[in-house]
Write a structure and sequence with these properties.
The structure holds two protein chains of two kinds. By secondary structure, chain A is mainly beta. In chain A, about 5% of the residues lie in helices and about 45% in strands. In chain A, the strands form three sheets. In chain A, strands 3-7-8-6-5-4 form a six-stranded mixed sheet. A three-stranded antiparallel sheet of chain A has the order 2-1-9, with no helix packed on it. A two-stranded antiparallel sheet of chain A has the order 10-11. Chain B is of the alpha+beta class. Chain B is flat. Classes of the chains: A mainly beta, B alpha+beta. Chain A: One of its GO terms (biological process) is chemotaxis. Chain A: This is CheW protein.
Chain lengths: ~150, ~650
């Protein structure tokens, strides 16, 4: 798991990421998986679906699940603000490429993070399940979370 | 134009030819004396040999040549067709397919065994009636005028004749029109050929094997030089010494009538392109829905007219595009004749196989995916359904069992059924097995239909002995999964002692359906129109009540479900709730919605893999305003909603 993620990094040991603010946290998504970032569009609720995948949206003619990972990390779900964006990402789940739209409270920037700042996920001190997190890296003075999206969503 | 790999073309063609050969051989097993069938089989073989050699499938060509040589004796009537011969020919056909699919396979020993068996069967035959070796032939050739349209090159045929011996070719120019009336695409001339040499009659006839229906061929041994004046077994159409003009005039008429121009009636198209076409049409239908919605908001009559026009056009385009993808199910049915033939032989259970409704058309994707489930069902029908001949005799039935495979239209669905006249399902035994496997608690009250559902549980088998074919409990769960994947359902009916029928209900197409758009709370949903029977208003006395959630529909009791509760809809229910009565298999159920919005051409988008746990919806579609709406799967709702007992055993399973 960790190796392919390191391989995605550049020769100089950095990884291109998109920095997102979700709830109170800052997440870094590998830039290669991000297809587009769109303004919020009308959603349709799917009765009976798991809470973090409770809606679908129409992204350019494709019906795509809308993932809200705030519930996965135990954060409160707040109303959309003018900063809210849908980040459309492509995941590989059991060998099939799958599109998912991700609710982000704010999209900051595309930046490079140095992979050598990578930290083990501490087993205490976080409220999150460690299998949802691939790694924690340093960006500037802050620690940001690189989530394991397939684990997180499935 | 795409450039096609010639080998691919050969493979496609060979597949078709082998299929035809198989059908013909099976027919031949039923009617051994039909010479047309023998000729058809022979022609298929000849083509496979020829094109096999052309595309470098040398082993195919060599084997087919030997096969053809043996079969030629049958064609000449030297030996009679027999069941053994048909069986060997079928295995020879399989071997050719093997050679085509894997040209380098190390299977020569199989081929040799088949040829040895063929030899054994035909060696008892008397040698073909010896025709006196002639010193030459007078050959008269006249073709139908339109022979050039299908690509036949008469000059090439003449060249082939020249290979057989020295030829003197004299054209018949009597009916050649004047130059201004000349149609360069019609053939106006015939030929008289004098062939000197010891060529056999059959060799000459083989030259014209593929054009013999659209030509008149006369063959007369060269007079005066024959050692014995043997009677000619094939009566020539006309007296060979009669003037050529007269003969031409007499044969041209019928030849013209027999060969209607058939050029460009069908063409091959890659399946992918059809899928692409369907995708484009789907996008168009969605865009059209948006246009109609926009036009509805405008008062401008001109825009409204255009929107209606486009709606009409796109609906017709959709129907045409779907029609292109429709394939008669007969193409699939013919495959199973071989299966039944082999199974019936291996299991020692004589079975007649009857098919009906071959012309019923279904989307090609549905047909492709239907093949495996039907194989399982037919195997089961022969292995478990039809009893052994002794048992049949004991219960006063004919020794030969009967398997019927039928297809028919029923509204927007197609019913494909496999029926046997065997012993029927043993409810008690299935139940006992289910209890043994812990699928259900002993004593749970279950209807017969609920008990049959256990047959679809993974690994479920009631067969006491495991045979090579079935009884290992693999299969029925796959059948169910495939049929549900096609948005179809399975009905089982059985009568003890009289047989079992398994009916697959399938949608006509997978891409676009007619839907009924309804509103529940704030959200809109689509119901497949095919399952909707009627819509009524919910009687006021039922709108609030609990516990008596059923209606009296013309004397029948129909339970109903409130979609608002099922989908957790927010807000206040509309004062006049509507009930949509849907039929799923035998069950009828009412679904209560807030509002019925109308018909909707529904382009089906499958739900994401991440939503695989959501069973209530079979897919989603995109509405005119660009939002997504979910398609309700009535089969899931009825399965989950109306049988409390079902829930019990599901948990245990």
């Amino acid at each position: 798991m960790m190796t392919d993620f390191v391989e995605a990094g550049r020769a100089d040991g950095t990884l291109q990421v998109v920095m997102l603010g979700i709830g109170t946290e800052t997440f870094a998504l590998e830039a290669g998986m991000v297809r587009e970032i769109i303004d919020p569009i009308p959603t349709t609720r799917v009765a009976g679906a798991r809470p973090h995948l409770a809606h679908i949206v129409n992204v350019r003619g494709n019906v795509v699940p809308l993932a809200d990972i705030r519930t996965r990390f135990g954060m409160p779900v707040t109303a959309a603000t003018p900063d809210t964006r849908f980040v459309v990402i492509e995941l590989d789940i059991d060998g099939d490429p799958i599109l998912v739209a991700l609710v982000a409270d704010k999209v900051f920037e595309v930046t490079a993070v140095a992979l050598e700042t990578r930290q083990q996920v501490p087993t205490i001190g976080t409220a999150w399940r460690p299998e949802y997190i691939r790694s924690i890296v340093k960006s500037g003075d802050d620690f940001v979370i690189i989530p394991d999206m397939p684990q997180l969503l499935n | 134009m795409t450039t096609l790999d010639p080998r691919e073309v050969f493979l496609a063609e060979a597949n078709e030819l082998l299929d035809r050969l198989e059908t013909t051989l099976l027919d031949l097993g039923d009617q051994p004396d039909d010479t047309t069938l023998i000729d058809t089989a022979f022609r298929a073989l000849h083509t496979i040999k020829g094109s096999g050699a052309m595309f470098g499938f040398d082993r195919v060509a060599a084997f087919t040549h030997d096969f053809e040589t043996a079969f030629d004796l049958v064609r000449r009537g030297a030996i009679a067709t027999s069941v053994e011969l048909v069986n060997v020919a079928l295995s020879a056909k399989d071997y050719i397919r093997l050679l085509i699919e894997d040209p380098d396979s190390d299977t020569a020993v199989i081929g040799d065994a088949i040829l040895a068996e063929l030899d054994r069967l035909v060696s008892g035959a008397p040698a073909p009636p010896a025709e006196p070796a002639p010193t030459g032939w007078q050959i008269g050739i006249s073709f139908a005028p339109d022979i050039l349209h299908n690509g036949t090159n008469p000059l090439a045929l003449l060249d082939e004749l020249r290979d057989l011996g020295a030829c003197t070719v004299v054209p018949r120019l009597a009916v050649l029109p004047d130059i201004e009336d000349l149609d360069p695409e019609s053939l106006h001339i015939g030929w008289d050929v004098t062939l000197v040499g010891s060529a056999e009659r059959a060799a000459i006839e083989d030259v014209f094997l593929f054009v013999q229906d659209v030509m008149e061929l006369t063959l007369v041994p060269l007079a005066g030089e024959l050692p014995v004046s043997a009677p000619d077994p094939v009566p020539p159409a006309a007296d060979p010494v009669a003037p050529a003009v007269e003969r031409d005039a007499s044969v041209r008429g019928p030849a013209e009538r027999r060969a209607p121009p058939r050029a460009a009636a069908t063409m091959r198209v890659e399946a992918e392109r059809l899928d692409e076409l369907m995708d484009r049409v789907g996008e168009l239908v969605i865009a059209q829905a948006r246009l109609s919605q926009m036009a509805g908001l405008h008062a401008d009559a001109g825009i409204k007219t255009i929107a209606e026009e486009i709606e009409r056009l796109s609906a017709r385009l959709r129907d045409t595009a779907m029609g292109i993808r429709m394939v008669p199910i007969g193409t699939l049915f013919s495959r199973f004749r071989r299966l039944v033939h082999d199974l019936s032989r291996d299991l020692g259970k004589p079975v007649t196989f009857v098919t009906d409704g071959e012309e019923t058309e279904l989307d090609k994707t549905v047909i492709e995916r239907l093949a495996d489930p039907l194989v399982h069902l037919i195997r089961n029908a022969i292995d478990h359904g039809v009893e052994a001949p002794e048992r049949r005799a004991a219960s006063g039935k004919a020794a030969t069992g009967r398997i019927a495979l039928t297809a028919e239209h029923a509204g927007a669905q197609v019913l494909v059924s496999v029926r046997d006249d065997g012993a029927g399902l043993d409810v008690a035994r299935i139940r006992a097995k289910a209890e043994e496997r812990g699928l259900v608690q002993p004593g749970t009250p279950l209807t017969d239909q609920q008990v049959y559902q256990f047959l679809f549980a993974p690994g479920f088998s009631t067969a006491q002995e495991i045979s090579a074919l079935s009884g290992r409990g693999v299969g029925m769960d796959v059948v169910k999964k495939t049929i549900e994947g096609l948005r179809g359902s399975i009905d089982i009916t059985t009568e003890p002692g009289a047989g079992t029928a398994i009916v697959l209900r399938l949608p006509l197409t997978l891409a676009i359906i007619e839907g009924l758009l309804i509103r529940v709370g704030e959200a809109r949903y689509v119901l497949p129109l095919a399952v909707v029977e009627e819509c009524i208003e919910l009687p006021a006395d039922r709108s609030q009540g609990r516990g008596r959630d059923f209606l009296d529909i013309r004397g029948a009791l129909v339970p109903f479900l409130r979609l608002r509760d099922l989908f957790d809809a927010a807000g206040e229910p509309d004062p006049h709730q509507k009930v949509i009565i849907v039929a799923v298999g035998e069950a009828r159920i009412g679904l209560v919605a807030d509002q019925i919005l109308g018909n909707h051409q529904t382009v089906i988008k499958s739900l994401s893999k991440l939503h695989a746990d959501v069973a209530t919806f079979s897919g989603a579609t995109i509405l005119g305003d660009g939002t997504a709406a979910l398609i309700i799967d009535p089969a899931q709702i009825t399965a989950g909603g109306h049988a409390a007992g079902q829930g019990d055993y599901r948990e245990v399973a």
